[in-house]
Each structure stands twice: as structure tokens, then as C-alpha cells.
Amino acid sequence: GAVVSQHPSRVICKSGTSVKIECRSLDFQATTMFWYRQFPKQSLMLMATSNEGSKATYEQGVEKDKFLINHASLTLSTLTVTSAHPEDSSFYICSLERRDGTGELFFGEGSRLTVL
Amino acid sequence: LAKTTQPISMDSYEGQEVNITCSHNNIATNDYITWYQQFPSQGPRFIIQGYKTKVTNEVASLFIPADRKSSTLSLPRVSLSDTAVYYCLVGPNRDDKIIFGKGTRLHILP
């Protein structure tokens, strides 16, 4: 069964609005989750690392005030795209890592954001 | 995370065996090699993982030479539904970064 649940799978919004995407760990507690963005025919680009109970770590070039990440519990991380604009339209994916020393990753189903 | 290099794209035909090779020259002693498959508009999903030699599961085999600087994902008797992007990653991640390479876009033809 699924280990990670991501919601919503699709969202369409008007420019200037904010959108929240949820990522839930279903099988185990995740102190760390990862958020990626993927443009058409491109690879996944790491946006930020979400840390439970502390501030997220953002990759260079990713605006932390634009992409708000909250990891308030061991099973839930949220990504809020604030004041979305058409250029923010993309596929957003969360993942978490199995902490057994193998580095295996579990991914959410992804969220397709379209900003009109 | 050790950098990986894969072919950008590959074409094959239904029923053929497909081998995709990944280079990871600076793999660390405690790194595993993991392959993921991604269909359009879906998150990647785990295919197979190995540390050394050969690993086989119900969908693929993974061949890792003794120096572990490369690995080959083998898909037996591919079908149209195997058309996807395949990513190889090595880890566990260090510095809390999990960086994806460009992956290999596999296109299966009828």
C-alpha cells in the first residue's frame, strides 16, 4: 500500500491566490520530508527539505517566503505556494526517506498546480 | 549524494530486454543503488535496490560490478507500459540532500 499520501492531486487557481499541498506519511514517522518541483520533460528539482519542528532548509534560488513549508507533526508536511503566478504552474512532489540506512525513497502521487 | 550519469533516452521494442546503465564514480562505501520509475503526472516509484553483485525481483534485475562505479538496470521482455523515465540514485543521502539526475526516458515501440 501507499506509504505517502499527497493531496490535492490537481489544483487550478487564479493568479494571486495561495495554494496548500499536503504530504502525509502513512506508515512511519518522518522527521524529514522533501519537496520537489518538476516541469514538463524535466527531472525532479529539489526545492526544500522539511524538518519536523524546525524551519525548512531551502535550496538555492527557491524563495522561502514564496513557498512556505510547515512540518508540524511527524506525519504531515505542507507546502503553501503563496500569491501564485502562472510561472509557479508545475508538478509538485513530496517524498520521505526510509531511515534504515538504504536511502530508499517513498514519493507522493504528486500535485499538478495550474495558475491561471 | 553521489552524482549519477545515465543516457538521456532509449528506444526499444516490445518483448525485448532493455538494459539501462548508470555511472556513479564517486559512490561511497555505505551507499546503496536504487532505481525508480516515473510515469507522466505521477510520483516516482521504487523498482529495485542493490549494494553489490546482482539483485533480481519480479520486475527487474540490477547488475553491479565489483567496483560499484556503475550499475545496470535490466528490464526483461518490455511492454508498452514500461515507457517511462527511469532514475538511478545512490545513497543514503548525505547533507540531507536528495538530488535527481536527468534520468533515462525509455520509449517502447510496438
Written description of the protein model:
The complex is a heterodimer of chains A (116) and B (110). Helices cover 0% and strands 52% of the residues of chain A. Chain A has no helices and 11 strands. Chain A is globular. The N and C termini of chain A lie far apart (34 Å). The mean pLDDT of chain A is 92. Chain B is 0% helix and 47% strand. In chain B, strand 5 and strand 6 form a beta hairpin. Chain B is globular and about 40 Å long. Chain B is built from no helices and 9 strands. At the A-B interface, strand 4, strand 5, strand 9 and strand 10 of A face strand 3, strand 4 and strand 8 of B.
Care to give the gist of this entry?
By secondary structure, chain A is mostly beta strands. Chain A is built from no helices and eleven strands.
Please give the oligomerization state of what you see. Answer: heterodimer
Q: Roughly what is the average pLDDT of chain A, rounded to an integer?
A: 92
Distance between the termini of chain B: 37 Å
Write down the secondary-structure element order of chain B.
EEEEEEEEE
Biggest β-sheet of chain A, characterized? 7 strands, mixed
N-end to C-end Cα span of chain A:
34 Å
Overall shape of chain B: globular
Count of strand segments of chain A:
11
Are there runs of chain B of 5+ residues with pLDDT below 50, and where?
A: none
The overall strand count of chain B is 9
Rg of chain A, Å, rounded = 13 Å
